[in-house]
Specification:
The chain contains eight helices and 22 strands. By secondary structure, the chain is α+β, with helices and mostly antiparallel strands.
């Protein structure tokens, strides 16, 4: 909230301090002009309109509950496109004036020079302020203002040099060429910044981390209809016993990978009477009109167990069964991943350090007790040699799915001699193995000890969700969900996927 108030005040101050510039330079043109000074007047007038628009939209969208996520994103996008358009307009008119204006008359350009020099200082201060605001809490309007003021600072530096040459060397070729070159450089740079801003906003881009309002981890995407739902665990800001402090699960949704709707808390430890701690990595699935959310929790007076929440809506709220689905009395029963095969058989894999599975019955809230809990052989052929307790790289966080006849098991892994998790994958031609190691999916560099995969195809695109510590204050216990788009090779293999800045709209 404080960041929003600071953003509003900073934008208002930008309007107040930008307004006198066009007026003073306009009056200065009555007593003397140069192509740079005329161009500067046009540029400042266009920028002022853009800043006023940004202030109005930010003031509206910064109010809690003033508009939903989609409306907020549309308003921010239109505002930033307008700012980009004003930058392009100012730059284009500056180019036209530079090549067509009569440069014979120079007169007194001191007013323009003073404004430009003051602009270098003021715009640099605003640039730093907007950058810090956006770093503390990312916002589309604030981010574009940071770009605008960075450009304004460089532009005013060029203008100052050009006008200073007119003052020091009036009527000389030096002043003429510096004046002309100053206009052209300023114009081209503004046009480039404007085009970049418009291109980003027209295409749409979601910058990582995709959830910026809270610390989230263990992403679990699920596609239902034309919407992708993303279920996450939640790292509390205040830690208990310097360990993962996690009490609930949240849901977010998108139709285009850029605009995310926050559905809030959908399930929590308070809803599970038999659990008392560790609301860890979830996954959801739909069957027969019901939605099932599988969650690992700590059982009172016991070890880890798997709870199931049931809902009529993908966005919850979910209601607990009243008892654990899987409870072996140990600490292995974590990180459930669920998949329904083409023949209707549902599988629930889970485990750290041992990968296990059960065959779910059609009701999705019980499993075939005659088969029981099956342990997957932890071999180097299946999961590669690693430094986890089984001697393989497999650690935790399995993600099970099928694509083009190939079964994939993606998981968090420890390489030989490594202390942080990377992501790896194995494949099989059967839902129960044997598994064949496929390779490293994402390296441990840039991570925060743990990682957790979530893989999904959505509207013709393939995505890997993961988590890092990129949000301000991020750490081992304060993680943030990110996403990267990737492609499969012709044989179904996957090359290593780099952590990235974000994804484009679809």
């Amino acid at each position: 909230m404080n960041n929003k108030k600071s953003g509003t005040k900073t934008l208002l101050m930008s309007v107040v301090m930008s307004a006198p510039g066009p007026l003073i330079i306009g009056l200065g043109l009555l007593v003397g002009k140069s192509s740079t000074q005329i161009a500067d007047f046009v540029r400042r007038s266009a920028e002022l309109l853009g800043i006023i628009m940004a202030y109005i939209v930010y003031k509206i969208t910064a109010k809690d509950g003033a508009c939903d996520a989609d409306k907020k994103e549309r308003m921010e996008r239109l505002s930033n496109i307008f700012v980009g358009a004003m930058m392009c307009l100012g730059g284009s008119l500056m180019l036209w004036i530079a090549f067509t204006a009569d440069n014979a008359e120079k007169g007194n350009v001191i007013p323009g020079l003073i404004i430009a020099l003051l602009g270098v200082v003021a715009n640099t201060i605003f640039w730093i302020k907007y950058r810090n605001l956006n770093k503390a809490e990312e916002n589309a309007i604030i981010a574009v203002q940071a770009r605008l003021y960075g450009a304004k600072s460089l532009v005013d530096s060029c203008v100052s040099i050009a006008l200073l040459s007119v003052v020091l060397f009036p009527g000389t070729e030096i002043s003429f060429y510096l004046d002309f070159i100053g206009s052209v450089v300023v114009a081209v740079y503004l046009i480039w910044c404007g085009i970049k801003t418009i291109a980003e906003k027209v295409k749409g881009f979601c910058k990582n981390p995709i959830i910026k309002s809270m610390y989230t981890a263990d992403p679990a995407p699920m596609v239902f209809g034309d919407t992708l739902y993303l279920y996450t665990s939640h790292d509390e800001e205040e830690l208990k016993n310097d360990f993962y402090t996690m009490r609930n699960w949240h849901c977010f949704s998108t139709k285009n990978m850029v605009n995310w709707k926050d559905h809030g808390e959908i399930f929590s430890l308070e809803d599970i009477s038999w659990a008392d701690d560790r609301a860890w990595a979830p996954q959801a699935i739909e069957r027969n009109g019901k939605f099932y959310l599988y969650c690992p929790v700590h059982k009172k007076d016991g070890g880890m167990a798997i709870a199931v929440g049931v809902s009529d809506s993908p966005a919850g709220p979910f209601k607990d069964l009243g008892f654990p689905l899987v409870d072996e009395g140990d600490w292995n029963d974590i990180d459930p991943t669920v998949f329904i095969d083409d023949d209707g058989q549902a599988y629930l894999y889970f485990g750290n350090p041992q990968l296990r599975y059960v065959l779910l019955n059609e009701d999705m809230i019980s499993y075939d007790k005659t088969v029981g809990v099956v342990n997957i052989p932890m071999t180097e052929e299946s999961f590669a040699k690693g430094s986890h307790t089984t001697g393989t790289s497999y650690a935790e966080g399995p993600w099970f799915y099928k694509r083009n006849g190939i079964y994939y098991m993606v998981y968090a892994a420890f390489g030989e001699g490594k202390k942080d998790e990377h992501l790896a994958y194995s494949t099989s031609h059967s839902p129960i193995g044997p598994w064949t190691y496929g390779g490293v999916l994402m390296t441990e560099e840039g991570g925060v000890f743990t990682n957790h995969p979530g893989v999904v195809d959505f509207k013709g695109h393939s995505y890997l969700f993961y988590h890092t510590g990129e949000l301000p204050g991020g750490s081992l216990f304060h993680r943030s969900v990110c996403v990267a788009e990737f492609t499969y090779n012709a044989d179904g293999s996957i090359d290593t996927i780099a952590k990235c800045d974000g994804v484009k709209a679809i």
